[in-house]
Structures are given as structure tokens and as C-alpha cells.
Amino acid sequence: MENSSLNISIKNVTKKYDEFYALKDISLDITSGEFMTLLGPSGSGKTTLLMVLAGFTNPDYGSVKFGEEEVILKPPHLRGIGMVFQNYALFPHMTVEQNVGYPQKLRGVSKAETSRTVDEALETVKLGGLGHRRVDELSGGQRQRVALARAIVFKPKILLMDEPLSALDKKLREEMQIELRQLHDTLNMTTVYVTHDQKEALTMSDRITVINGGELMQLGTPNEIYEHPENGFIADFIGESTLLPVQVKNSKATIGKTEIKVAQPLDKDGNFSLVVRPEKVFLAPSKKKKDENYFNGRLLDSIFQGESQLLVIDLESAGGEAQELRVRIPNQSVTDKALPAIGEKVTIALKVADSYVVS
Amino acid sequence: MSLTTNNINQNELRKLAAREGYTFFGLTVPYLIMVTALIAIPVGWLFYLSFIGRDGTFSFENYERMWKSKAYIKIFITTFKISILTTIICAAIGYPLAYFMSQLSRRWANICMIGVLIPFWTSLLVRTYAWLVLLQKKGLLNNIAIDMGLISEPIKFVHNTTGTLIGMVHIMLPFLILPLYANMRAIDKDCMKAASSLGAAPSRAFWTVFLPLSLPGLLAGLLIVFVLCLGFYVTPAILGGGKVIMAAMKISSNIELYFSWGAASALGVVLLVVTGIILFIASKLVSIDQLGSR
């Protein structure tokens, strides 16, 4: 199969607005054909980075290469990228067909070929036969598909997407996530995807770049980012988690006065946080085991959430301060044994293998 | 299933809905009274007068005169020529300005908007006489140009078509800019970015995306300006110096000099009909709500 994608190499890209860094020395390599997600809270700089790739924002300095070619000085229309915008940015004065055919018309593609590629692109996004519709006759999901068809019709080697699903409702968004992922696998374009939705990022990406405050926080596969966050921000931002303050001294970790065992070697002393994810903790069995850490507390609240039961637990003496911990118990069977009552004392367990501290 | 047993409060709820309807309709009453008293009745009266001849009987002579008299035909040609030229010049000046403003941040755009609106808030008469002071034979502009040695004889800026156009363009410009700017502001900036990312050079993106999307605003502005020009009186009367005679001035002289209400009314009716036809054609050309919607 022909190589229809390009790798992207970002080096030292920095953008400053007055005293505020939108991007701070970002260096990042995106491999050819990869689905890379730029993930961060709003105002983190992720969109700015995408706009630098697209050519709509010029950084103060830094280099962006598509393949071997430096593109930082190239205007957007010469970069040959496909781009999907948050609010679709379809041309309201054109039909679906004219929208999708627009890039082909710009490229001087013949009428017959344009018509063929437009049909093909519309088929790809499952909108075959809707070419004659006006844009305002389409639903949000359909509009997003048109925007996508328009961005891929000229077979760009790089596809940029700026929160393309954020305007859709939850159910449709989740369907589109899977579909976009499958589409990426078929088209094999290098895809850079911006989102603030960590679940979306985990679902779709080959790798995720977490950005916060204009800085690159962590780069890794969804699994690495979720299981081994490099710092408290990421642990908190990706998935649900409670951070329990941990003191490390002489390779020993303690919460308050209780020693805990952790999965990783501890070579630095100081204050750390134990990442406790609600789905990794469980009600302790009566028989204690060596490979588990235990926490005592009182059940504050118990919430039925359909697929799971969420227990909110007030931890006892977690370093003196009141500390809430969440435990998610999967709803596997209606015959599950009774849960503790609110106010009751409970002991919860976390496997040592899942005990992970971050700075 | 029958609903008859469950129609609790049905009548009361219907009455409530009806009362809300009346209240809502009530909001239009002041306007309806005003339109009837100040527009419908006088215009109807004028319409009637236009069919009354000099001898006080029903006749078409007021309309026939317009058709046959060369003076009237000339007035119509002048009126349309001045109106079309003013509209075109306004578009040529206003479009780039509105575009510029639409690309600024809100803050700077508002400052520019004040610049556009300040003349708008100044009396029409004051502005027109100000142009006269500026442009007349011994006016500011000619004096400066002569002092600087650029010209030896004063240029005739006023009491002709040029002066009329300068004054009218200045007065009409805000009417073009306001709807156009509002339209341009509403154009999704991402549309231009999308065009650019898809491979359109800036000029191409402008012609294929921005211009078509700004057409409804442009058309609205052109229409307002053109229709206002057709009936404009003050500025052409002062800056035209009696040499540029437009329809409104003829109406005025018909009444003030010749006391011919019939002739004046007929001219008014024709102007009204022509304006109506133009609006109708324009609404057929571009459906504003269709183009504007996203």
C-alpha cells in the first residue's frame, strides 16, 4: 500500500502573549499514520498548537516539519492539510456536494473526477445520496460528516481535527468516536486530534499528548497515561481519582502513621500523592492479604448509578485531614450481596500492584 | 380511548391562551394607529388627488404629463442616475470599511463604529451646509489648493452633480455600513479558515466564501441607500444648487410654486410604485433569510 501519510516533527515551538505562555517549548514527534490526540483543559494551549500546525497561528519561534519539509513559514493554503473544525465551518451558501467538492475545484480537478471523489468521500462518511441537500437541512452529526468528507476528499496526508465532536450529544459522540477511529484505520492519514474530553482521548488515540499551561505534561499511549500518570495533574485530569497525601522517607511510604506498599521503587524522599481510582478499590474481604493496602473509614454516601454503585467514604486519620475516597462497585448481578449501610464503618482495599504514587 | 372524561380545565385553559393572544396583539396597537393615521390615510388621499385634474374632475392628466413632458423624463433620469451612482460609490467605499471593521476585535470595531455613527447623529442640514462651506468656489478646499499652487482656478465642486454626489454619499454611507457590518460580523470566521486549509489562497477564499456570505448584508445596505436616495431632498437641493433636480424637489416645487397637488401626488405615487417594484425584484433575486441561515 502506498504511504499516504507524513510524520510531523515539532521542535521548540513557543508562543507568548504578553507575559503568558500559550505554548512553552513544545517538542513532539508524531509518527506517520498515527492517531495523536492533544489533550488538555480549556486554555491549555492544545488548540494553539493545532493552529500552529495548520498555519493559522505563527509561533514566536520553533520548527514544524511535515516529513522532511519545514512548513513553519508556509501559509495555511499551501500546507495541504485536511482540517475539521469544532463548529463544522461548512459553507452555508453551498450544497453538501459543493462543500465537499470545494477543495477539488480549487485544485483544478476535472468535473468528472470531482464528482467521483465527492461521491466516494460521502460514501466513506456514510452520507451517500445526500449530496444535493442544503447544509441547513442536515443534523449536527450529518454536518460533522460533511465537514469530514470535505477534509478528506483531496486525500491529504495530514488530518487535523479541533474538538470535532464537542457539539454533538453524548450518545452520538460516542458512536462517532468509534467511527472516526475506524475511518482513521482505513484512510491511514496522520491524524492530530484536539479534545478536552479525556475519555474521548483514551477511546480514540494511538498516543496522547497531555498539555497544560502551554507545557507538554506527558506523552504516551492511553494505557500508559491512565495507569502511570507522571504527576498529580494528569492523575486528576485523566479518569476519576482521589489523591491521598503520602510521605516518603528512606524508601518507605506512609499515609499518616500507616505504612503502605507501592508498586514502584521509591528513591526520593518527600511528599507524594497516592493515586486512588474508584474502580481499583473495593470493599476489603474479612481475611487480609499481604498484597493489599487497607484503609479504614465510614460510609458517607451510597449512590446507585446504573452500571455501578458509587460509595463515598470518609477516611479515618488520613494525615489528620478529612479525606473523601470514592469506591465504584460494578453492578454485576442483582443478587450481589448487601452493601454496607450509610454511617457504617468500612474497610477498603487497594492492591499493591495498583498502588502508584506521583509527585 | 376517549378524552371526554379527562378534559379537566379545558375551557379555562383555552380562555387563558386566548387572553395571552389578545395581550400579545395589543403590543401592535400603537404602531397600527400611527401607520393608519400618518401613512395609510395621507397616502390614500394623495393617491386620490393624483387622479384629479386642474378642473377638479377625474382625469389621468397628471400621469400623462409625466409621460409626455421632457422635463419630467429628465427628472426621472437624473433621480435614477444620482441614486445609482450614490449607491455604487457607497458600496465601493463602505464594503472595504465594513470588512476591515468586521476583522477587528469587538473593542476596536466599536470604536470605529462610533466614527461611522458620529456624522449619523449630526443634523443632516448641518452636514450638508458644512460640505457647502468646504467645497464652494471660495471654500476651504479650493483656497488651500490654490494657496499650495496645485490649481490656478477654483474647481467647481458644488452646485452640480459632483457636489450632490459627495454630499449624498457622505449622508448615506452609514445606512450601507450598518447592515453590511452586522452581516459580516455574523459570518463564521472558521469558514474562511476552512477555505484556507482546504487550499484557497486568501483572494480566492474571499471571492468564493466571504463575498457570497456577505451578499445579504450588502444587498440590504444597497437597497436602503438606493430607496432613500430616490426620495432625497435636502442635500441635492442645497449642494445641487438648483441644477440637479430630483423627483423630491419637483414634488416640492409643484406644491410650493404651482400649488398643483395633483401633479405632486402623481409623482409621489410613481416614486412609491417604482420603489415597490425594486424591492420586489430584489427580494426575488436573493432570499435574505435563505442566505443568512446556517
What does this structure look like?
The complex is a heterodimer of chains A (359) and B (294). Chain A has 359 residues and is α+β, with helices and mostly antiparallel strands. Chain A has 2 domains: 220 residues, Rossmann fold; 119 residues, Nucleic acid-binding proteins (OB fold (Dihydrolipoamide Acetyltransferase, E2P), Beta Barrel). Chain A has 8 helices and 20 strands. In chain A, the strands form 4 sheets. A 6-stranded mixed beta sheet of chain A has the order 6-7-8-3-9-10, with helices on both faces. In chain A, strands 13-12-11-14-20 form a 5-stranded antiparallel beta sheet. Chain A is globular, with a radius of gyration of 25 Å. The mean pLDDT of chain A is 88. By secondary structure, chain B is an all-alpha fold. Chain B has a single domain, classed as MetI-like (MetI-like fold, Orthogonal Bundle). The C terminus of chain B is likely disordered. Chain B contains 14 helices and no strands. The radius of gyration of chain B is 26 Å and the shape is flat. In chain B, 77% of the residues lie in helices and 0% in strands. The chains are: A alpha+beta (359), B mainly alpha (294). The interface between A and B is medium-sized, with 31 and 22 residues.
